[in-house]
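pls design
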C-alpha cells in the first residue's frame, strides 16, 4: 500500500462488532478428537473506521472475544464521501479478488457475505461490490480491506501531488 496505512487509536470510539464466520476446527490425537473454534470478527464505528481480527479458543464466546480484541488492534481509517466510496477499486488477497464501485444514493450495499459485513461496519451506505475467485471468508475480508486501504479522496490526491483541488478535477 503506497499511500500509507491510516492507523487509528481505540480510545473513545463507539465500536460495533460483527461476526463474519466461525469455524469448528478438529485436532486428531491418539486420545481422540479435540475441538476448538476460530472466529473472524469485524469492528467499526460506521463512520469510516474499521478493523478485522481472528480469535481462536476452545469455546465460541472466548474465540469471539479474542477476535474483537484483535480487531481493535488493527483499526484503520477509510475515506467515505456522501455515503459511498470515492472511486472504483480492485484488490486481491490470496485467491480472493474484490471489485468495489461507488453507487448513487438509494442503491444500498450490494455485496455478499464477508464483504457486506466489512462495508457496513465502515459505514458505506451505497456501494456495488463483486467478489471473484475464492469465497474463503479470511481472504475475502483481507481483500476487501486491501481495496478500502487503496481508496483516496480528492484532498489526499491533491496533497500527494502538491497541487490545488481545482487542478485535480480539471486536469
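designed seq:
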Amino acid at each position: 500500500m503506497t499511500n500509507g496505512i491510516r492507523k487509528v487509536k481505540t480510545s473513545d470510539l463507539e465500536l460495533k462488532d460483527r461476526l463474519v464466520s466461525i469455524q469448528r476446527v478438529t485436532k486428531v490425537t491418539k486420545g481422540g478428537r479435540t475441538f476448538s473454534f476460530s472466529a473472524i470478527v469485524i469492528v467499526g464505528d460506521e463512520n469510516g473506521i474499521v478493523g478485522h481480527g481472528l480469535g481462536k479458543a476452545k469455546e465460541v464466546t472466548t474465540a469471539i472475544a479474542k477476535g474483537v480484541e484483535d480487531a481493535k488492534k488493527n483499526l484503520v481509517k477509510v475515506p467515505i464521501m456522501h455515503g459511498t466510496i470515492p472511486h472504483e477499486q480492485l484488490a486481491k488477497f490470496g485467491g480472493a479478488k474484490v471489485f468495489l464501485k461507488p453507487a448513487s444514493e438509494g442503491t444500498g450495499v450490494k455485496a455478499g457475505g464477508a464483504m457486506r459485513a466489512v462495508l457496513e461496519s465502515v459505514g458505506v451506505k451505497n456501494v456495488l461490490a463483486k467478489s471473484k475467485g475464492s469465497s474463503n471468508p479470511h481472504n475475502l475480508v483481507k481483500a476487501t480491506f486491501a481495496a478500502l486501504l487503496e481508496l483516496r479522496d480528492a484532498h489526499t490526491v491533491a496533497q500527494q501531488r502538491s497541487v490545488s483541488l481545482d487542478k485535480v478535477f480539471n486536469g
